[in-house]
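Z., the sequence and structure:
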Amino acid sequence: MGRSDARPRARSAQDQEDGARPAARNVAAIPCTGRLCLRCYAVPSIWSSVLALQTLMMNTTHPTLYPDVNAVLQLLLSSVQTILGDHFIGMYLYGSLASGDFDQSSDVDFVIVTYDEISGDLFSALQAMHARIAASDSWWATELEGSYVPQHALRRYDPTHALHPHIDRGRGESLGMKQHDSDWIIQRHILREQGLVVTGPAPHTLIDPVLPNELRRAVLEILHGWWALMLDDPARLNSRGYQSFAVLTMCRMLYTLQYGTVVSKPVAAHWAQETLAERWVPLIERAWVGRQNPRSEAQSEDVNGTLDLIGCTLERSQQFEILALKEVQPPCSACPSSSF
């Protein structure tokens, strides 16, 4: 959730014919589970499957249900362990692989936890290793997106010590040093609560709990520090991939502001379609379809609709600004529907 600087890339004809990749999913096909407040309503069809998936995936050779993804992850793991040696603590997956919503448009989100900061020769060796993996034949080799974070920085977010090695998905990307902004608060929460262990200690032993209002504050900071600027400079939204990303991100942000927790894109999209005003339903549906064709150009109707949704999300976020300053979350008020 948050911002994305990664550039969408074209899929070749060979990519399109590769039957090994998982089929795309449509949000309309997601079973309706009713209003999705995770604090008031049980959603066993989703979360029991996630927990079962997590139990199955705690191994280094078959961490996911996708053989081609596993092959790339095994190559990454063995290479990282060889380079880092005693500096290595663990490797973890989060994002759509952990939530059970992985499809052909997803990236492969990973975190490598280290004993201390990575620099010098170790950084250079990791950089060269990622270049070799990216040059391989696997579709997923350029879909890896992740960071190398020392254990002390993973424990709790400190913006003054948040510069870590990171690689974005996409062809031509390379490992570099990247400042982890407030979005990392959200990613730490996802990793702690849903992360898949490839190898290493359980995530909850490495990461302190992230409070609901910490998540709200992170969302508010990202909204005002990144997405508000889009209203004056919407050029990125001309890309179908980024426009779709923006719509689905607004759904996730609104959910987090409302309930103080984080859910996946399809869960948030389904909740938004049920909860927000009818005017947003077609825009959300088209965003889910559009993410399958990220290199195409977004329709002007969808760009304008996305700008309206960003503006309305910013307006709606104002009611949470005082709440987000508090450390104790109030009880849920039966999840009232919104006319927003």
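The longest strand covers residues 88-94. Residues 212-324 form one domain.

Let me know what you think.
H.
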